[in-house]
Amino acid sequence: MITITRTDSDNNDFRSLVILLDKELSERDGNEHTFYAQFNKIDKIKHAVVACKNEQPVGIGALRQYAENSIEVKRMFVLPAHRGEGIAITILTALETWAKEMNFKTCILETGKKQPEAISLYQKAGYTITANYGQYENVENSVCMKKEIST
């Protein structure tokens, strides 16, 4: 059974999984990792979730307000041994529910071309590719996506 806990970036399980996420992204992104890392600081994340399976933390995700009606999905990660078990979509759904509760209308996110599994997950969840936004505007490796979540 998967349980989702709402928390923030001070949560030890969240922080531990972020370390593993950053290690994986560093390997995937290579020389581009330094650029992306500057936008993935976790010291002030107010809306994070930790997914646990049998009381063991196996995945994370977070939200950060982007604009008045838009919130950005950040720091999505599931331990490699637990991928393909539906944990990522459970995390994403929990984040979208939380965003709706806070009255946001749109979820946006950025992922990389070197993360085809993530792109596929987001598309299956109803996200569509959109023009790169903000700091990702002219970044060749970035894929930006959005989903309207208002009811």
CATH superfamily caption = Gcn5-related N-acetyltransferase (GNAT)
**What percentage of residues falls in helices of 4 or more residues?**
25-40%
**Strand proportion:** 25-35%
Number of strands: 7
CATH architectural group: 3-Layer(aba) Sandwich
Q: Give the class from helix and strand content and strand pairing.
A: alpha+beta
Q: Which consecutive residue ranges, at least 5 long each, have pLDDT under 50?
A: none
Notes on the protein architecture:
- The protein is an alpha+beta fold and 151 residues long.
- The chain has a single domain, classed as Gcn5-related N-acetyltransferase (GNAT) (Aminopeptidase, 3-Layer(aba) Sandwich), CATH 3.40.630.
- It has 4 helices and 7 strands, in the order E-H-H-E-E-E-H-E-H-E-E.
- The protein has helices spanning 12-29, 33-37, 87-101, 116-124, and strands spanning 2-7, 47-53, 56-65, 70-78, 106-112, 128-130, 142-148.
- It has a 7-stranded mixed beta sheet with strand order 1-2-3-4-5-7-6, sandwiched between helices.
- The two termini are 28 Å apart.
- The model has no long low-confidence stretch (mean pLDDT 90).
Secondary-structure topology with pairs:
Elements: E1 2-7, H1 12-29, H2 33-37, E2 47-53, E3 56-65, E4 70-78, H3 87-101, E5 106-112, H4 116-124, E6 128-130, E7 142-148
Parallel strand pairs: 4-5
Antiparallel strand pairs: 1-2, 2-3, 3-4, 5-7, 6-7
